[in-house]
């Protein structure tokens, strides 16, 4: 079985692509393939990974044009014949080869008020949270995001609108809005109502379709649209 | 490039137009039987306050809705930004309104009388 | 292009269809309004245009327009249902229903026009 080889085409930042012959194995992830190239064929290849088990969110790349977490994507799932094309994540500046600059992604996370807005001090007692309340269930639905930026790379609205905050940041805003411990409601609703806000979303659903953790940013963004729409009637405008 | 205000205008005009489109489709399916003629159309619409209000509302809503929709396409697919984008949106909206208002006026008060 | 095809999925296609149908309607409307305005300026010419609608090619074009209008409306209602109503799971079914209904209405129009 493992005698055959794969034709692995990697997009390089120096321009153009390089195709490598990589030994095929029964159990092999896309990240394994990229690592084999870097360790055995071309040590100058730059890419990024850390945990290898789908927790850290650092190894996402475009695989045949589709953003995926490469450490948890089996190569057999994406092979076309025996070939695969691997490139840097879409919608982000390339640093080198397969490593992109994630700063815009994280900056937008903060711009969407994806930060904790606390009102209590360390001297206050810890507030009880009802795990079964509707708001907590809604918040829980989105908190397993690992910041891998797959949704951000999948979203065509991000491609067409550099100001758009994107699915991950907006989903974070939605979870905080539903979090009983967070006091940032006004700041969050303001942050997601600007030129790059949730209203730019066209519900094309690529974020939800491709999220490796099966989260649903599209529905979270729809929730933000509802909440912001309510404020329009309340303000009388 | 869409703010809360544009988003709300887009959705409100859409909801307003849903019944209008259904009505328009029904009229079309009914009207095309046996061919179309100017006399037939005008016979239905001329001097009718009801049709004037129906299509008048339709034109206002479609001008707003179309302008905001094309704005999003210009921004996302055309890379248009800033004042040019604002200007294009207003031009499309006012243009659609002017042409549409003229058409509604024509079939309600103009023509063969 | 291949990358775009690889990324395609039902809801994305529904979005593209919604956008293209909307754009096509926006481009068609000025012509539509102009023809109707002939009732004011040149009624004979309006009849000339309407006579065109007896031709098969024009009928097919009209079929397309009715379909665009129907598909844009049902596609839009689908988006608003998804945004404003709490039920969100059957999105793909809604998208399929929207196109099916649009075809139905457009076909009904076409059959009547024959």
Automatic annotation (TrEMBL), chain A:
Top-rank EC class of the record's enzyme: oxidoreductase
GO function terms (MF aspect): 2 iron, 2 sulfur cluster binding; 4 iron, 4 sulfur cluster binding; electron transfer activity; metal ion binding; succinate dehydrogenase (quinone) activity
Cofactor: [4Fe-4S] cluster; [2Fe-2S] cluster; [3Fe-4S] cluster
This enzyme's EC code(s): 1.3.5.1
Keywords: 4Fe-4S, Iron, Iron-sulfur, Metal-binding, Oxidoreductase
Pathway involvement of the protein, from the record: Carbohydrate metabolism; tricarboxylic acid cycle; fumarate from succinate (bacterial route): step 1/1
Annotated family: Belongs to the succinate dehydrogenase/fumarate reductase iron-sulfur protein family.
Any GO BP: tricarboxylic acid cycle
Subunit: Part of an enzyme complex containing four subunits: a flavoprotein, an iron-sulfur, cytochrome b-556, and a hydrophobic anchor protein.
Cleavable signal peptide: none
Taxonomic source organism: Pseudooctadecabacter jejudonensis
Span of domain 2Fe-2S ferredoxin-type: 6-90
Official protein name in the record: Succinate dehydrogenase iron-sulfur subunit
UniProtKB/TrEMBL annotation, chain B:
Keyword field: Heme, Iron, Membrane, Metal-binding, Transmembrane, Transmembrane helix
Matches recorded under SUPFAM superfamilies: Fumarate reductase respiratory complex transmembrane subunits
Record's subcellular location: Membrane
Pfam families from the UniProt entry: Sdh_cyt
Superkingdom of this protein's organism: Bacteria
Gene3D superfamilies in alphabetical order: Fumarate reductase/succinate dehydrogenase, transmembrane subunit
One cellular component (GO) term of this entry: membrane
Ranges that cross the membrane: 12-32, 52-75, 87-107
UniProt key word GTP-binding: no
Xref: InterPro entries: SQR/QFR_C/D, SuccDH_FuR_B_TM-su
Cofactor(s) of this protein: heme
Keyword presence, Lipid metabolism: no
GO molecular function, one term: metal ion binding
Function: Membrane-anchoring subunit of succinate dehydrogenase (SDH).
The name this protein goes by in its record: Succinate dehydrogenase/Fumarate reductase transmembrane subunit
Organism the protein comes from: Pseudooctadecabacter jejudonensis
UniProtKB/TrEMBL annotation, chain C:
Statement: the UniProt record of this protein carries the keyword Glycosyltransferase: no
Stretches that traverse the bilayer: 20-40, 60-81, 93-111
Free-text remark on how the cofactor is bound: The heme is bound between the two transmembrane subunits.
Keywords: Heme, Iron, Membrane, Metal-binding, Transmembrane, Transmembrane helix
GO molecular function, one term: electron transfer activity
UniProt record, GO biological process: tricarboxylic acid cycle
Locations listed in the record: Membrane
Cofactor(s) required for function per UniProt: heme
Protein name, entry field: Succinate dehydrogenase cytochrome b556 subunit
Source organism (scientific name): Pseudooctadecabacter jejudonensis
